[in-house]
From TrEMBL:
Signal peptide extent: none
Listed InterPro entries: HMA_dom, HMA_dom_sf
Domain HMA: 11-76
Name the record gives this protein: Heavy-metal-associated domain-containing protein
UniProt-listed Gene3D superfamilies: 3.30.70.100
Protein backbone atom coordinates (compact mmCIF):
# COMPACT_ATOMS: atom_id res chain seq x y z
CA UNK A 1 0.00 0.00 0.00
CA UNK A 2 1.61 3.22 -1.10
CA UNK A 3 -1.11 5.73 -0.31
CA UNK A 4 -4.00 6.16 2.10
CA UNK A 5 -7.08 4.17 1.15
CA UNK A 6 -10.56 5.45 1.91
CA UNK A 7 -12.85 2.78 3.40
CA UNK A 8 -16.32 3.55 4.72
CA UNK A 9 -15.52 7.01 6.05
CA UNK A 10 -12.07 6.08 7.28
CA UNK A 11 -8.53 6.27 5.94
CA UNK A 12 -5.98 3.46 6.24
CA UNK A 13 -2.28 4.27 5.98
CA UNK A 14 0.73 2.00 6.43
CA UNK A 15 3.95 3.45 7.86
CA UNK A 16 7.43 1.96 8.15
CA UNK A 17 9.02 2.22 11.59
CA UNK A 18 12.59 1.19 12.35
CA UNK A 19 13.79 -0.28 15.62
CA UNK A 20 10.78 -2.39 16.66
CA UNK A 21 11.88 -5.88 17.70
CA UNK A 22 9.22 -7.30 20.04
CA UNK A 23 5.65 -7.15 21.29
CA UNK A 24 6.55 -4.46 23.80
CA UNK A 25 7.85 -2.29 20.94
CA UNK A 26 4.62 -2.86 19.03
CA UNK A 27 2.60 -1.84 22.08
CA UNK A 28 4.62 1.31 22.69
CA UNK A 29 4.26 2.49 19.10
CA UNK A 30 0.57 1.57 18.96
CA UNK A 31 -0.14 3.34 22.24
CA UNK A 32 1.50 6.60 21.17
CA UNK A 33 -0.09 6.68 17.71
CA UNK A 34 -3.53 5.81 19.11
CA UNK A 35 -3.43 9.09 21.08
CA UNK A 36 -3.49 11.15 17.85
CA UNK A 37 -6.98 12.64 17.45
CA UNK A 38 -9.08 10.78 14.89
CA UNK A 39 -7.16 7.48 15.08
CA UNK A 40 -9.54 4.53 15.45
CA UNK A 41 -7.08 1.62 15.28
CA UNK A 42 -3.37 0.89 15.14
CA UNK A 43 -1.65 -2.42 14.34
CA UNK A 44 2.13 -2.54 14.63
CA UNK A 45 4.09 -5.58 13.43
CA UNK A 46 7.69 -5.70 14.67
CA UNK A 47 8.74 -8.42 12.20
CA UNK A 48 7.97 -6.22 9.19
CA UNK A 49 8.37 -2.80 10.78
CA UNK A 50 4.96 -1.86 9.45
CA UNK A 51 2.32 0.06 11.37
CA UNK A 52 -1.19 0.15 9.91
CA UNK A 53 -3.25 3.11 11.11
CA UNK A 54 -6.97 3.62 10.53
CA UNK A 55 -8.23 7.14 11.12
CA UNK A 56 -11.25 9.32 10.39
CA UNK A 57 -9.19 11.53 8.05
CA UNK A 58 -5.65 11.53 6.64
CA UNK A 59 -3.12 12.12 9.42
CA UNK A 60 -0.43 14.77 9.46
CA UNK A 61 2.80 12.82 8.99
CA UNK A 62 4.53 15.16 11.46
CA UNK A 63 2.06 14.05 14.17
CA UNK A 64 2.72 10.39 13.39
CA UNK A 65 6.49 11.04 13.40
CA UNK A 66 6.23 12.79 16.79
CA UNK A 67 4.24 9.88 18.25
CA UNK A 68 6.74 7.31 16.96
CA UNK A 69 9.63 9.41 18.31
CA UNK A 70 7.89 9.60 21.70
CA UNK A 71 7.74 5.80 21.73
CA UNK A 72 11.51 5.70 21.11
CA UNK A 73 11.52 4.63 17.48
CA UNK A 74 12.01 6.22 14.07
CA UNK A 75 9.39 6.77 11.39
CA UNK A 76 11.00 5.84 8.09
CA UNK A 77 8.01 6.91 5.98
CA UNK A 78 4.97 5.39 4.38
CA UNK A 79 5.16 1.78 3.28
Amino acid sequence: MTSPTDTQGSVTAVYKVSGMSCGHCEGAVSSEISEIPGVSSVKAIAATGEVTVVSAAPLDEAAVRAAVDEAGFELVGKA
